[in-house]
Amino acid sequence: MKYRRLTKQQFEELHQEFINFLATQSITGEEWKQLKADKPEVAEEELDVFSDLIWEGVLNKVTYLENISAQQMHLFELTDKEMKLISVKVMNPKIDLQTTVGFNWFKKNWQSDFVDYLTASKAYGEDKNLDKFNLIQQGAVITKGDLYKWFDSMIEVN
Q: C-alpha distances in angstroms, 83 versus 77, 80, 119, 129?
């Protein structure tokens, strides 16, 4: 398995896609039930293969990721050739960017001396999707990139 198995909830949400996947493997509903009962290790392999296919499809489409903690934001743009990062660090320990109050403070004070910025870019390793997946495993979430784009435009202006 290249990534990680989908959760039970994700499998439930992708129920029809999983049925279609089994059909491409020429496995009927009855055969699937029998496979789970008689050869659970083979059934487990099918779940893993399906999970990897889903992850691969999702990761191919990901363009922006965000990882926001109490005092830091790591905003990523994932281009064809590299990962671009805008890192934001709040040096006020009383501020928690994960709260509405903290984020509102940040919106008013983003240019203050209490906020540091860093930009960087890094080429992908051998497997671009695995690099993206690792960021997600570390807590990043897939977004539309609104925060990244806003900061990127502010950085270009200054």
A: 6, 8, 11, 11
71 burial (CB, 10 Å; 0-12 / 13-18 / 19+) is middle
pLDDT tens across 8-42, in order? 999 999 999 999 999 998 999 899 999 999 999 99
pLDDT band of 153, cuts 50, 70, 90: confident
Counting every residue, how long is the chain?
158
DSSP state of 112: S
- Rounded to whole angstroms, the Cα distance separating 74 from 87 reads 5
**Amino acid identity at 125:** G
Residues contacting 125, CB < 8 A, separation 6+: 131
- CA–CA distance, 35 with 43 (Å, rounded to integer): 6
